[in-house]
Amino acid sequence: MRFDVAQRLAHWGTATLFLVLIATALPLYLPAVAQFVGRRALVARVHLWAGVALPAPLLGAVCGPWGAGLRRDLRRFNLWSASEVRWLTTLGRRRPALRDKFNPGQKLNALFIGASIVVMLGTGLTMQWYAVVAINLRTGATFVHDVLATALVIVIVGHVAVALWHREALRSIFTGKVSAAWAERHGAPWLTETPNDSVPSNSH
Amino acid sequence: MGEPRASHERPTRVGRRVLLAMIGAAAAGVAFGARAQNAIGNVVGSGLGGLVPGADRFRIYSITSSYPDIPRSTYRLKVTGLVTTSLDLTLDDLMAMPRVELVKDFQCVTGWRVPQVHWVGVRLSDVLNAAGVLPSAKMLAFASYDGLDTESLTMSQASRPDVIVAYEMLGAAITREHGGPVRLYVAPMFGYKSIKWLSEIKVVESAPLGYWEHDGFPADAWINGSLQRIEKSLV
User: Fold this and answer.
1) HSE, side-chain direction, 13 A CA sphere, residue B30
2) Using an 8 Å Cβ cutoff, are B39 and B52 in contact?
3) ipTM for the complex?
4) Does residue A200 sit in helix, strand or coil?
5) Beta partners for B106?
6) What's the pLDDT band for B2 if we cut at 50, 70, 90?
7) Which pLDDT does position B228 carry in this prediction?
8) What pLDDT digit, counting tens, does each position of B80-104 carry?
9) Confidence at residue A198, expressed as pLDDT on a 0 to 100 scale
C-alpha cells in the first residue's frame, strides 16, 4: 500500500480543484477564450469558490485518525537529509545517498504546490476584496497571482508528464498499491508500515 | 522499524523554508508588482506584453455569453429621458462633434491596469448639450447593446472633461471585443464604469443600480491615488 484512501482523496480532491481553477482562469485571463465563454459572473464565481475550497481536501485528510499516512508523508516532504539537500543545491547532479519514499524532486513538487496554495489564496482574496486593500497593492497581487499561475501550469504539466512516464507509480495514485517487485526496487521499508507505526525521524 | 540512517543526522526542514521563501517573494511582488509590471511592459513592448504574464495587459470581462456585433453603419446612440430633444446619433454624428483625446491608465478594480491608453471621442457633456438637459435631471443611466450591462453617473460626474463617449482606442477604431464601435470611457473611475457597446444614455432623476453595483461594487468608483497622466485635448 503506497497511498491509503486519505492520501488519495487529498491528492484527487486538490487536483480536481486545480483543474477547475485553471479551466476557469483561461476565460478570465485570455481574451481569445473570453470571447467564446463570456459569462464572467458565473466563471468568476466558480473560480472563487474553487479557490477558497482548495485547501479543504488536504486539511480534511490531514486532521483526523485517517490521516496518519498523509501526515507521515508530509513529514517526509518537509524533512530532507543532507544528501537530499545536496541534490537541490547541485541542481540534481548529486543523487541522494539513501532512498526515501519520495525522491527530492517529488518532495520539491509537493512543497511548491503546497506553498502556492497559500500564495494564490492570499493574492486571490486580495484581488477580490478590493475594499480592504489599496489599489497599488491589488495591482501587485494581480501580478503575483498571474505569474504564479503561469508557473503552476508549467509545473503541473510537468508533474502529469512525469507521472504518465512511470506507469506503475501512476497506477498507485488510483489504486493505492504497488507490486512487491516495485517496492523492492524502490527500497521501501514503508511497504510494511501500518498506520499504528509511530512516525520515523526520516526515511522509511 | 529500525532506522537505516545514522541517528545523529538532523534533517533539514526544507518545507518551512520553501513556504517562507514563497510568501516572502509574494509579499515583495504585491508591494512592487505594479512597478515591475510597468517596467516589464516598457522593455517588452505592448505587443509581446500582451503575452507575457508579468506585463500590463487587458483582460476582457464579458458578462453575456458572446459579444454583440454592431456594424458601424447601423450603430446608433440614443439620448433620451429628461432632455429637450431626444437624439438618435450615428457614428458620423458623433465624429462631427468636438473631438477630444485622452491618454490615461485603464485601471480595473481587481488590480490589473494598462498604462497610457490613447482614447478619442466626444465629451459626454457635449453630447448632453446637443440634446438639452432639463433642470430636473440628476443622473444618467447607460445601457449596452449586450442587453445586460447597465451603468450610471451623476450629472456632476458626467460633466467632467475626462468622461467621454469614445470611438477610438489605441490609435484605431474601438474593436468589437473592447466594446466597439462606441463605448463610454470614464477616466477617473475603475474600468467597470466604462460600459461597452454603448446603446443609450437616459437622463433621469434617479438611476437604478448598475450591473456591477448589484454585485456590491461602488457606484462612485473613483480610483484613489491613480496614476493619471497626460491629458491631451484637441478642440
Assistant:
1) 22
2) no
3) 0.82
4) coil
5) B114
6) very low
7) 33
8) 999 999 999 999 999 999 999 999 9
9) 46
> What letter would DSSP give residue B69?
-
B227 grid coordinates:
496614476
Which chain B residue has the Cα nearest residue A32? B60
Mean pLDDT of B128-142: 96
How many residues are given for chain A?
Answer: 204
**Residue numbers of B between 38 and 57 with CB closer than 8 Å to A:** 53-54
Cell numbers that stand for B52 in this block:
507575457
Give residues with Cβ within 8 angstroms of A98, minimum separation 6. Answer: A81, A83, A187, A203, B4, B5
All structural domains of chain A: 5-75+104-190 (1.20.950.20)
Q: Which three cell numbers stand for residue B129?
A: 448639450
Mutation to test the B interface, candidates A39, A129, A146, A190, most B Cβ within 10 Å: A146
Full-model pTM: 0.80
Give the span between the Cα atoms of A198 and B1, in whole angstroms. Answer: 9
**All structural domains of chain B:** 14-55 (no CATH), 77-214 (3.90.420.10)
